Amino acid sequence: MTDEPIIHIENVHKYFGHVHALKGVSLDVQKGEVVVIIGPSGSGKSTLLRCINRLEEFDKGKIIVDGIPLDTAANINAVRTEVGMVFQQFNLFPHLTVQENICLAQRIIRHRSKEEAAKVAKDLLAKVGIPDKAKMYPPQLSGGQQQRVAIARALAMNPKIMLFDEPTSALDPEMIQEVLDVMLNLAKEGMTMVVVSHEIGFAKAAANRAILMDDGQIVEEAAPEILFNNPKQERTKLFLSKVLK
Amino acid sequence: METSDKNAGAVNPEKILKEAHKVESGWILVGTVVALILIMVFTKPDPYQNMIVFMADGLWVTIYTTLISFSLVLVVGLIGGLGRISKNPIIRGIATVYVEVIRGIPLLVQLIFWYFAMPAILRDLGTTLNIESLANYKTNPLVMAIIGLTIAYGAYMSEVYRAGIQSIPKGQMEAARSLGMTYFQAMRYVILPQAFRVILPPIGNELITLLKDSSLVSVVAVADLTRRGREFTATNFNPIETYSMLALLYLVLTLLTARLVSYTERITKTER
Prior knowledge:
The complex is a heterodimer of chains A (245) and B (272).
Chain A: E1 7-16, E2 19-29, E3 34-38, H1 45-52, E4 60-65, E5 68-69, H2 73-82, E6 83-86, H3 98-108, H4 114-127, H5 143-155, E7 161-165, H6 173-188, E8 192-196, H7 200-206, E9 209-214, E10 217-222, H8 224-229, H9 234-243
Parallel strand pairs in A: 3-8, 3-9, 6-7, 7-8
Antiparallel strand pairs in A: 1-2, 1-4, 4-5, 9-10
Chain B: H1 13-43, H2 45-84, H3 89-103, H4 107-129, H5 132-135, H6 141-166, H7 170-178, H8 183-213, H9 225-236, H10 239-270
């Protein structure tokens, strides 16, 4: 069981109407690994990420997460409780306080007591560096603070895997680092992470592997220092020359 | 999506004054109409006091017919609204046909159908199927009227719920589902509480319209306010006085409901 990948993606195809968004993508992620996916918009990187917790249905192929195949509704919900997801637009629940945001799923999915959930929320808010915001509502927070709450909300479920879908793309430049710092710490703690992001600095510092996707396929896959500094594929060079400028 | 507003909690005295003024003027109107009725009753007890005593039970019937129907409408509308956005084409189809058919038939025609046709259908059915209690079904006008109002307004309310649910960004459902919630848990804890704030004003409108449309039940043997008013003129031959009072009584009810609706809106807004 030790070398069984925690995420196994095999020949996954996805169509949006006539658009072939994923063209047979295969990818294994090991436990504790941090994988960063880059690529131009429309390359299918977010779609692939969303397939891992089945927010997006795929048309062909299979995905097995932590030994559970994504097929039945029960399995999908089981996988979702083990996989945390962080979105570009934060998607905090605006009608609930920060603390309630973090406690809601703990209470109804994990069936934790009120005190237990509150304790988890308190610890996680301290961990993401905003212990004093528990009673505030999301619209009262800055983007960077909201995204850190979103990370805390996902972590409260004790996920085995964290997925990040362009977590810093909607943030003002000066708020990007505070979110990346939280992610770097998570990576150091050994969390399995799949990150769609163009933050090359984060990829170099935290990732075990970097992947370039284009046109629904994986173009190149290598250690980040190799992919960013010495890519083999022309497509990768072209993309990096535009991003790194 | 709201942006971060550091002054969100700050007090704006001008705004509070304006709000207070709005509340005031609403109550002034209610007070004026109530005062008018009282003046009429005390200065000319005959016929006004007599007619109020005569119509009092009708007023009560109008109020509880409206309230019972509206409570049921809230439930039927929620089911209909969820059906309208269901991914299952059969459920969606049933909900769509319900809404479209009901919206296309005048309310009065629907009420007449429930009162005159439905009991006959039930009795026929009872006879053919040999179910004695059904074959001898005795029409209960109030029950049929409430069913009629509920079915009709449930269709409108379905659309209100549907619009409210669809106004919540898709990311809310995705975030809830990605935390492991089922569709119905996400609806209950995340989507509906937000949607409810959006649809509170249209829901209030539906309540006021339902209150007014409840006067149609007077045609199908329910002794509501309108019917009692007509009965009073039938014996006293004073249509001007009676129907003026009838109009004023409805006005008091609708104005009070409007106050209630705007009060509910205000407390759900300040909660944020």
